Amino acid sequence: MKISELSKITDASVRSIRHYEKKHLISSIRLENGYRDFDESAIDRIKTIQFYLGLGLTTDQIEVILNCKGNNPHPQMDDFCDDLFKTYEEKLNEINNQMNALASVKRRLEKRITQFKERKAKHNDQKVIEL
To answer: Is the CB of residue 21 less than 8 Å from the CB of residue 28?
Structure first.
């Protein structure tokens, strides 16, 4: 199928599909006229790529997953792949670190907002006393 058809079926832009191909996440053959020709397996492959992108993984991490034992993007326990497990753990650690950093920023903002509210209330109380 042509890249435009694959784009419509998967909802991935033509540009994204070209990028996936450049990163060796999908493959095509070139026809005599220079057009790319994708087989039906590209549909599931792109949907898998989109799933992992939605998890926040990079295309390099996705490549590791797609090339995992048996070339199966969703390995069962008997198809366990150390690289897949490592990638998941690294992503989870990254997310936990981001959450901790955001929680710290949130606490600082909440403290600052409380300080502003207290100052504003004190300022308003002084205005009432002056009247």
So the answer is: yes
Q: For residue 40, give every residue at least 6 positions away whose Cβ sits within 8 Å of its Cβ, in sequence order, or none.
A: 1
CA distance 65 to 72: 8
Rounded CA separation 59/20 (Å): 8
Q: What are the residues whose beta carbons fall under 8 Å from the beta carbon of 16, sequence distance 6 or more?
A: none
C-alpha distances in Å from residue 106, one per residue of 80, 95, 97 = 39, 16, 14
Sorting pLDDT into bands at 50, 70 and 90, what band is 85? confident
Full set of structural domains in the chain with CATH? 1-57 (1.10.1660.10)
Rounded to two decimals, what is the model's pTM?
0.67
Let me know: does 27 contact 46? Beta carbons within 8 Å.
no
What percentage of the chain carries pLDDT values higher than 90?
A: 63
CB 42 within 8 A of CB 50: no
d(CA 120, CA 93): 40
pLDDT for 84 equals 78
